[in-house]
């Protein structure tokens, strides 16, 4: 049987497992779907392997050969196929795209599933499956240039759509509630939409209050709750993560720092205010008049130098 047929079979069985829904079958569903995605990845590499190369791109071991005309080429050796690390590496070089972050989160659950599966995890697995469906459908369409309905069949495909739709509905409910809150900061408004649960990585975080300092985000996937003191700095860091990284690399000033009022790392420099408590700090030193750098914002209204001197 071909790789592609195996991939389709794994995904079909995984979807059936999922629909049956018992503990054993859900575990099996995660395994089958994970395996199915890997097989789709390998199919893409196989298709790009040159003729007479023994499917070089899907082989873990690649060796050079020389024929009687002195032409050297690389061929695949043995039966062992590429591991995930190699797939990722080859995709990179060959411009094959997939959502690796989502794939990693599926792998993580697949590896741990025996250890932490409880009754409560049903919805968590459901969301995971929903995520994996978006990987499957976009990979089939964009990289394998096939039609998912034709490839997977109507029954499997519509079951997948239904799960994805449920997930999408939940996500919309969360976003609607998030967007109704006045966050008082553009950076925060952006960041809260992108943070995910610290425990299960789901983006189904539902805010239970409109008051920022009393805010609690409840994860609709694993049930974990997180308070504002955790959410707000994480959201600021998420929104400004790239800027922060760039300023680190270029040796420039950081885009956020610790708030002198509440102590959280949520003081947004360009907004001149703390995203958590709203405090607007003095940005110039009371003593020497110099600009206080973000890393010393905690000491405002003094700069670190004056703070030390006046102690
Ligand atoms: Zn969670
Ligand atoms: Zn503050
Ligand atoms: Zn000073």
From TrEMBL:
Biological classification of the source: Bacteria, Pseudomonadati, Balneolota, Balneolia, Balneolales
Taxonomic superkingdom: Bacteria
Protein's recorded name: Uncharacterized protein
């Amino acid at each position: 049987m071909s790789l592609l047929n195996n991939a389709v079979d794994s995904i079909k069985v995984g979807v059936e497992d999922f629909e049956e829904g018992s503990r054993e079958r859900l575990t099996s569903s995660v395994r089958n779907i994970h395996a199915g995605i890997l097989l789709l990845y390998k199919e893409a590499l196989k298709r790009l392997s040159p003729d007479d190369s023994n499917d070089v791109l899907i082989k873990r071991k690649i060796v050079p050969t020389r024929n009687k005309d002195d032409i050297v080429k690389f061929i695949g050796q043995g039966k062992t196929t590429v591991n995930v690390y190699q797939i990722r590496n080859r995709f990179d070089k060959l411009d094959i795209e997939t959502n690796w972050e989502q794939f990693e989160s599926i792998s993580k659950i697949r590896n741990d599933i025996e250890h932490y599966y409880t009754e409560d995890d049903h919805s968590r697995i459901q969301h995971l499956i929903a995520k994996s469906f978006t990987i499957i459908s976009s990979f089939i369409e964009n990289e394998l240039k096939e039609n998912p309905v034709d490839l997977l069949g109507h029954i499997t495909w519509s079951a997948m759509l239904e799960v994805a739709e449920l997930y999408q509905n939940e996500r919309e409910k969360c976003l609607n509630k998030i967007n109704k809150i006045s966050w008082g900061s553009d950076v925060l408004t952006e960041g809260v939409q992108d943070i995910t649960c610290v425990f299960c990585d789901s983006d189904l975080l539902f805010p239970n209050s409109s008051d920022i300092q009393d805010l609690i985000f409840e994860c609709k996937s694993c049930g974990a709750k997180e308070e504002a003191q955790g959410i707000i700095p994480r959201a600021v860091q998420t929104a400004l993560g790239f800027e922060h990284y760039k300023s680190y690399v270029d040796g420039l000033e950081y885009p956020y720092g610790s708030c002198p009022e509440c102590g959280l790392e949520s003081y947004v420099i360009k907004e001149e205010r703390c995203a958590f408590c709203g405090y607007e700090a003095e940005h110039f030193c009371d003593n020497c008049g110099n600009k206080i750098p973000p890393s010393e914002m905690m000491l405002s209204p003094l700069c670190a130098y004056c703070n030390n001197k006046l102690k």
